[in-house]
Design brief:
This protein is globular. Helices cover 37% and strands 20% of the residues. The chain has 461 residues and is an alpha+beta fold. The protein contains 17 helices and 18 strands. Helix 9 crosses helix 11, helix 9 packs antiparallel against helix 14 and helix 10 packs across helix 13. The strands form four sheets. It has a seven-stranded antiparallel sheet, sandwiched between helices. Bound molecules: flavin-adenine dinucleotide. Flavin-adenine dinucleotide (FAD) binds next to strand 3, helix 5 and strand 10.
């Protein structure tokens, strides 16, 4: 019996597939990176089945790529070796337990963000992390995803209390517990969150949830310059306004948004804002914010309290990436993802704008500016080597600018293959520590090999 037959025996045969269409679906993510087919895709339903798959992968020295929804942007799920087994977690999609009094929920990794929020709504609760795409919780934990609400509630790493993880040899461990704090042992939650499938497969996640706010208000504030918009954000944060979301969309992206979403928003650098709280607190926050943005030369501020208008506003914001894709038929998007200290944000965004213009490529800048994270969305033809090189040059310029100012090459999308070349520059000697951790936990390099770290050897810098 070979690997395929043993996998069929471990799972029901209909949950082991080498069908061309299935392989194609698991050969790519949402990025411009070149797809590559895995050899086989498996669809486990239980923790024990995942453990069994890992034991077989070990036996046959087969690489394993965990797969959530494939919405990642740095080639994170693209196999890069022969004989790859992709583990698709879509059938492990149950909300296992809602502990409403503890503000905790236990889920399987294939549960999606919107599926979880639909279930939590019954309890007056919600899960805060919103990366725009309807990603799986397993994938979001593995990339340490964040998005629009991180400025108030934090990133995935802040929400994870415990993970059930299958290690490379099939062993099953828990990385945390249910307590709100702990000083016990190394912080394994912190290590495994953001490990992009290179250290283990998550089979259960216990996550923090929040009470649905009594009132929510959204707003749109337009400016003549990105500088003014960013200064307004700094002013809002310095004033201690507990803003729940603050997003910057530049002029080019506002134009794409209006074309795609049918909105008629003013086409200048714009902040999209959201406030959560009780009525009295909210009114105070709104008035304070209005004063701050007007002081920073805001040209127009419009508040939206009714749910439909608010949803429309955030839908338009979340669809900016698709607006660019729709506006550039046949092209793919390269998305940069640096994060800088907030004091360096205005300069960083200006540098990104100049880098895009110098390249001659079409693109814009959007950002989760409350935490200094922004994206340049650059449209390229992946088959045109000149386009790819130009976009890579823009990316490098943006990353180098961020690293020189104490920032990071990726705020939320992860390293995958796209950000590997910046790891040494960003981490220095600490990269050797990461290599040693990888070697200790996955000595044969079967877990998502050659992602984050280039190979499994420990290289003294
Ligand atoms: C239009 C658009 C907008 C986006 N905006 C944002 C944003 O604002 N913020 C943000 O953070 N991201 C954003 N993303 C990126 C993306 O949604 C995230 O990277 C997401 O967290 C990946 O989840 P997924 O379920 O699609 O995982 P996948 O893409 O399938 O996998 C991502 C990584 O997780 C690993 N993985 C998956 N499941 C498991 C598991 N069970 N155990 C261990 N490892 C696993 C994979 O091996 C891979 O390395 C955006 C993407 C798109 C397309």
């Amino acid at each position: 019996m070979g690997l395929y037959e043993e996998l069929q025996e471990a799972l029901n045969s209909d949950r082991v597939s080498s069908n061309e269409t299935i392989l194609e679906q698991h050969s790519k993510d949402e990025s411009y990176h070149t797809p590559r087919f895995p050899d086989v895709v498996v669809f486990p339903e239980t923790t024990d089945e995942v453990s069994e798959i890992m034991k077989l992968a070990n036996k046959y020295h087969s690489p394993v790529v965990p797969f959530g929804l494939g919405s990642s942007l740095e080639g994170n799920v693209i196999p890069n070796e022969q004989d790859t087994i992709t583990i698709d977690f879509s059938l492990m999609n149950k909300v296992l337990e809602v502990r409403e009094n503890d503000f905790l929920v236990k889920v399987q990794p294939g549960v999606t963000r919107s599926q979880l929020n639909k279930e939590l709504k019954k309890y007056g609760l919600f899960f805060s992390v919103d990366p725009g795409a309807d990603a799986t919780l397993g994938g979001m934990a593995a990339t340490n995803a964040s998005g629009t609400t991180a400025v108030k509630y934090g990133v995935m790493r802040d929400q994870v209390r415990d993970l059930e993880v299958i290690l490379a040899d099939g062993a099953i461990i828990h990385t945390g517990n249910l307590a709100a704090k702990s000083s016990s042992g190394f912080h394994l939650n912190g290590l495994f969150v953001g490990s992009e499938g290179t250290l283990g497969c998550f089979t259960e996640l216990t996550l923090k949830v929040y009470g649905i706010p009594e009132h929510t208000m959204a707003a749109r504030a337009s400016f003549d310059s990105v500088d003014d918009a960013v200064e307004a954000v700094v002013g809002i944060l310095q004033a201690g306004v507990p803003i729940a979301r603050v997003e910057l969309v530049d002029e080019q992206s506002m134009k794409q948004m209006n074309l795609y979403s049918g909105t008629t928003y003013k086409e200048g650098p714009t902040l999209f804002l959201e406030f959560h709280g009780n009525e009295a607190g909210l009114n105070h926050d709104i008035e304070f914010t209005r004063e701050i943005v007007l002081d920073k030369n805001c040209k127009e501020i419009k508040f939206e309290s009714d749910t439909a208008a608010r949803n429309r506003l955030w839908e338009a914001r979340h669809n900016v990436a698709y607006a660019y894709i729709h506006g550039h038929p046949g092209k793919k998007q390269m998305v940069t993802d640096v994060c800088v200290p907030i004091s360096k944000l205005a300069g960083a965004i200006k540098e990104a704008r100049v880098a895009i213009e110098d390249s001659g490529l079409s693109g814009g800048v959007v950002g989760h500016v409350g935490d200094g994270n922004y994206h340049a969305l650059i449209m390229i033809d992946p088959a045109n080597q000149e386009d790819v090189e130009k976009a890579k040059h823009v990316n490098t310029r943006i990353v180098n600018y961020a690293l020189k100012r104490g920032g990071t090459c990726t705020g939320e999308h992860g390293v995958g293959i796209g950000k590997q070349e910046y790891q040494e520059k960003e981490h220095g000697e600490a990269l050797v520590v990461m290599q040693k951790i990888k070697q200790a936990l996955d000595p044969d390099a079967i877990l998502n090999p050659n992602k984050i770290l280039k190979n499994n050897s420990v290289k003294q810098l």
